[in-house]
Design brief:
This protein is α/β, with parallel strands linked by helices and 251 residues long. The protein contains nine helices and five strands. Helices cover 44% and strands 12% of the residues. The N terminus is likely disordered. It comes from Nonlabens dokdonensis.
């Protein structure tokens, strides 16, 4: 997995692919996603990962075992986005996939017998559900860098497909930074968060950011939307009502 830069102020603020060869974002469709009724293991790893190196002999042994009808595909998380989109937060991580659908996942190092048992167990499962959503949702927004040294495009790219991570970072910026460039960067992040998934918390974050940026009309509009959604979902509206009063007082 690419190192996720969930920045808080306290921290300053291909050819034919065979088993064990690396897959990329671009080759997922012709490898991992093939619908051929075979169980596949998508193995997220990276060159710097010590536990991954410890697993190498086990993975190689299973991949070369002709008695096991399984293909293991490795993905270097430093060079791809699929792991970020799929919210792989630690490595090694293993996705068990058949006909393009994820049946389960596991992580950490394990003995060969444990891995084989997992493969066989998932192979017996009924395949159902949606296809693995490894492609990120397109956005109408472009990443905007902030003035803070950590708010670079490279860092922000690692969060671009995680709605809750984007919301968390945008809120931290709102709480701790004052530079207009940083706040505008946070506004892009929260708009992307809402684009991916709309919920009370990210609407509240957007309303607070707009208020801090001085866009009182849009702040109030967003706050009303957050209050309506909170009421529908049975959540507390106290914080957003307090913000609405502040916005009205500043108007």
């Amino acid at each position: 997995m690419r190192i996720l830069f969930i920045i808080t102020f306290s921290l300053l603020l291909s050819s034919t692919i065979t088993a064990q060869e690396y897959v990329t974002d671009a080759t997922m469709e012709e490898t991992v996603m093939v619908q051929d009724d075979q169980i596949k293991v998508l193995y997220f790893t990276a060159p710097w990962c010590g536990p991954c190196r410890a697993m190498a002999p086990t993975i190689e042994s299973i991949a070369n075992d002709e008695t096991l009808d399984v293909t293991i595909y490795k993905m270097n998380t430093d060079d791809n986005l699929s792991d970020d989109i799929l919210q792989v937060n630690s490595i090694p991580t293993y996705f068990f996939i058949k006909n393009g659908r994820k049946l389960g996942q596991s992580g950490s190092t394990m003995r060969r017998a444990e891995m084989v048992k997992l493969i066989e167990r998932h192979d017996k499962m009924t395949v159902s559900g949606d296809l693995l959503a490894y492609k990120g949702k397109p956005s109408k927004y472009e990443i905007a860098e902030g003035a803070h040294e950590k708010l670079t495009k490279k860092n922000l790219e690692t969060l671009w497909y995680g709605s809750h991570q984007l919301n968390e970072l945008a809120w931290k910026i709102y709480q701790n930074l004052e530079d207009q460039t940083d706040l505008k960067c946070a506004l892009v992040l929260i708009n992307r968060s809402i684009e991916l998934e709309t919920y009370v918390s990210n609407l509240e974050t957007k309303a607070h950011l707009l208020h801090k940026l001085g866009d009182l009309k849009q702040a109030l509009k967003t706050a009303k939307k957050a209050k309506k959604l909170a009421s529908q979902e049975g959540e507390s509206t106290a914080i957003i009502e307090q913000l609405m009063e502040q916005i009205k007082a500043d108007s």
